Amino acid sequence: MGNCFIEYSVLLDKDLQENSNDKVRYEVVEHDGGWALKVGDVLSGRYAGHDEAREAAERAAAEQRLPGETEDIEYQDKARDWHEEVAQGKNRPETDVTG
């Protein structure tokens, strides 16, 4: 599950565009007999150990703060409808990791 933070980046870019909250909290939680990253109501896939999940959360949080290119993104909303938009790469949130 080492690349789930890339999926989070796309989801969070869209979430940050819709919300005025400038801080993203990655929480390491027990899930499905292992560990997962949780951001808001979104859970990652399962990690076998807490340390592995914590390292993934730290990587995701660090990557989320990096400015990037303006690019087209696709995302699925809560109603499971797909959308295509342009994400500005310069608007980066503050991040932290708990758990």
TrEMBL record:
Region (Disordered) location: 54-99
Compositionally biased region (Basic and acidic residues): 54-68, 75-99
InterPro entries, per database record: DUF2188
Protein name: DUF2188 domain-containing protein
Originating species: Microvirga lotononidis
